[in-house]
Amino acid sequence: MGSYYSRYDLTRVSTGPIAALFPDQSDRSFPANHVYDKVITARVNLTNFWNAKIEGHFKNGYGASTFPNGFYPQLNPMGFKPNTHALVLKTSVNF
Fold first, then answer.
1. Mean per-residue pLDDT pooled into runs of 10, the chain (95 residues)
2. In whole angstroms, what is the distance from residue 9 CA to residue 47 CA?
């Protein structure tokens, strides 16, 4: 069993002379300026070299920027929601 909290904050897309062309993104009240991810997880060892894992993600924000963070406009043509929940099932083999 385990858990973690991931925090991704956006401040500026660019610096220097061209920074004036891009909006300031330091206001964390907008979901486009952050991604906060609360995660709970459990792993079970099926054998000495094979395991299975389940994760529950509870995300707030989507951090719309030029940086890849898992939310892509081409996959979400109707726009992003401020909260996202995900259930992830994984399996791993160690050798």
1. 91 69 74 90 97 97 72 79 94 94
2. 39
